Amino acid sequence: MNVILFGPPGAGKGTQAKKLVEFYKIPQISTGDILRANVREGSELGLAAKEYMDKGELVPDEVLIGIIKNRLKEADCEKGFMLDGYPRTLPQADALSEILEELKKPIDVVLNFEVPDEALVTRISGRLMCKCGASYHKTFNPPKKAGLCDACGAEVYQRADDSEEAVKNRLKVYKTQTQPLIEYYEQKGLLKTLDGTKNIDLVFEDIKAILLEFA
Ligand code: ADP
Ligand code: AMP
Q1: How far is the CA of 186 from the centre of ligand 1 (A)?
Q2: Is residue 178 part of a domain?
Q3: For residue 13, what is the domain's CATH number?
Q4: Which of 36, 83, 177, 208 has the highest Cβ tally under 10 A?
Q5: How far apart are CA 210 and CA 81, in angstroms?
Q6: Considering only CA atoms, which residue is closest to atom 27 of ligand 1?
Q7: φ, ψ for residue 83 (rounded to 5)?
Q8: Residue 112 forms beta bridges with which residues?
Q9: What domain range includes position 97?
Q10: Residue 98 belongs to a domain
Q11: Is the CB of 123 under 6 A from ligand 1?
Q12: How many separate domains does the chain show?
């Protein structure tokens, strides 16, 4: 099962990905998580990416394409994968098609999370993140023990790019550079749109109903 989780920042992709990983036992490939791990480690890639990420800009395509190319070749992607936060531009989508053609692993479905801007801002401004990639919300989905990740026990934190200014820019960047991919995948007959405003468990049920066909 090869799936793309698609939608604006804060739509709930990462939250659903964690539940899907557990349910279907296929890996989540979150380019945001990969970049943040590089920033934490202080790698060359992380240092270069941080400048873009803090401003809410996209990291250059060639960097992301390189990351995805290597990641999709790893053994855990044999039985399927879930892309979260990639592709975000037309060149990234074209590169992905080429890579997957070579690997003979076609995309089965693109799940398009629809959530209005006001809700995205409320979600992002209350988001708490863990370095393991788990995502919480101060009100909608708080960790069981205040301030600590349910999954790994580490301290949760607010992302630097979840500041009001960076969020506004990320939504603008989404509309100009990423949203056109909806049409791209619709034309390929791969797009399934979800009502991402429902609560976390209901969105998960809707996704499972769509994925039944591919499991
Ligand atoms: P994305 O990965 O798409 O950027 P996240 O999964 O990190 O988004 O979710 C953004 C924020 O919204 C988090 O604080 C998360 O807890 C919260 N959230 C996710 N899904 C829902 C939902 N269905 N209803 C309310 N809040 C949600
Ligand atoms: P995310 O965790 O998906 O919200 O991503 C956080 C930030 O990482 C984005 O605002 C970008 O700066 C960068 N990023 C993640 N994925 C990509 C991508 N596919 N293309 C370009 N930049 C990305």
Answers
A1: 24
A2: yes
A3: 3.40.50.300
A4: 83
A5: 16
A6: 12
A7: -85, 130
A8: 6, 193
A9: 2-26+79-117+164-211
A10: yes
A11: yes
A12: 1
Whether residue 198 is contained in a domain is answered as yes
Which residue is associated with the tokens 């479905």? 109
- Is residue 173 in a domain? yes
Is the beta carbon of 203 within 6 A of some atom in ligand 1? yes
The answer to whether 40 is a known catalytic residue is no
Q: Has residue 165 got a pLDDT over 90?
A: no
Q: Which of 36, 50, 71, 127 is catalytic?
A: 127
DSSP 154: P
Q: Report the largest interatomic distance among the alpha carbons of the chain, rounded to a whole angstrom.
A: 46
82 phi, psi to nearest 5 deg: -125, 115
| Residues in the chain, overall count | 215
Residue whose tokens read 């994925």 = 211
pLDDT in tens, 29-47: 999 999 999 999 999 999 9
* 102-119: burial string, b at 16+ Cβ within 10 Å, e else: eeeeebebbbbbebeeee
Model pTM? Answer: 0.97
**Tokens 């099962």 -> residue:** 1
- What are the percentages of helix, strand and coil residues in the chain, rounded to 5? 50, 15, 35
